[in-house]
Description:
By secondary structure, this protein is an alpha+beta fold. 26% of the residues lie in helices and 37% in strands. The protein has nine helices and 18 strands. The protein has helices at residues 48-52, 95-110, 131-141, 185-190, 192-210, 247-254, 265-275, 326-335, 338-341; strands spanning 3-7, 16-27, 39-43, 64-75, 85-91, 116-128, 146-151, 156-161, 164-169, 172-176, 178-182, 219-228, 233-242, 262-263, 286-290, 296-300, 304-308, 311-320. The two termini are 34 Å apart. The mean pLDDT is 94.
Amino acid sequence: MATLLLSGGWISSEGIYEAKVKEVHFLKNIDDLEIYGRGFLLIAYDYGTSTLGVPLKTSPLPCIVYAELDEVVPYSLNERGADPQLELLGFSLSREEFIEGVRRIKDYIAKGDVYQINLSSRIDFRLKGSPRSLFLEFFTRQPVPFGFFLETENFYVISGSMELFLKKEGNLLRSSPIKGTSRDPRLLVESPKERAENLMITDMMRNDIGRVAEIGSVRVEELFKVSPYKTLYQMHSTVVGRTNKSLREIIKATFPPASVTGAPKRRAVEIIDELEPHARGYYCGVGGLVEENGNFTLSVLIRTAYGVEDNLSYFAGCGIVWDSDPVREWEELLLKTKAFYKLRG
C-alpha cells in the first residue's frame, strides 16, 4: 500500500491533500509508461544516462515510479503525529571537499569546458519518528507549491520543491527554472553573479524547450523574478513555448533539468559525476502529476530527501560560475538545509 501527500500548489489550492493510490508501477524506461487517468510520476536523476548517453552513478531505488491515482481529498495537518527527530550522520562532501570541488569547477570554466555547474552534497541522517510526520513538519516550516510525500513498501521520498520544471496545458509548455538564493532579496536583484547565473539557465531552458516546440513559439515570459519563502528568497525566470509533443518525447529532449546540471548540459553532467561521490537518485530528478489527456505538471526535485526505514538522505547544491566564492557557496548550501534539518530550531 502506498501513500501520497501533495501540497495544494499541485492543484492550484493551498494546504495539504492526500491522493488515494490505486497501484504503483516501477519502470526502467519512459517508453514503458502507460498513463491511466491521473497519476503521479517520479523520475530519478540517474535517468540522464538514457537521455544524454552519459554513464552516471545509480541509486538502488527504482529509476521511474508511476502511481495510479484515485480521488484527491484534503488532509489535516493535525494528523502529523509525534514530532520527528533527525540525527545528523555526515556529509558526502565535507566543507573542505565542497570548497575544493568549487575550485576544480572554476578550473574547468577557465579551460572553457563549461560555463556553470551545479555541485551538491548528500547529507545523511537517522530518523526517529515517521517520515510522514517529517514531511508535514518540513512543509509547515516552509510551505511550497510543489511539496509531496510518497511512501511505498520499500522506500519514501520527501520533497519541499518550489521549482517548476515543466507544465503542459493543451499545447502550451512552461518552465520556471530557479537560480539565485539569498536571505536578502536585494542581494539577488543587485548581484551581477546571481543574474548571470539565472540568465544562463534561462537560455538553456529556451534551448531545451525549443527542441520540442513549434518554431518561433519560444519566448521568455518573466526574467529575474524574486519569490519569498520562510527561510530564504529565490530568483526564477519563466520560459514558454507551444508543442504537440508527448510527455515521453519532451522528457527525452529536456531531462535532466538544466537548473540542476549546468551549461553545456552534457559536459556539466560528466563533471558532476566526476566530482560528486554520491548518486543523486531522486534528487535533481523530476516528479509530479500527469494526466491521460497529455497535460502534466512536473517539479524539479530540489529540497528533496529519500530514505529506507530510519536511514534517509537530504541533498543540497549550488550553481557554480566563474566568480563564485567557494565559502559563500558552502554557506548557501547550508541555507538550503535550514527548513529541513533545523525543524525544531
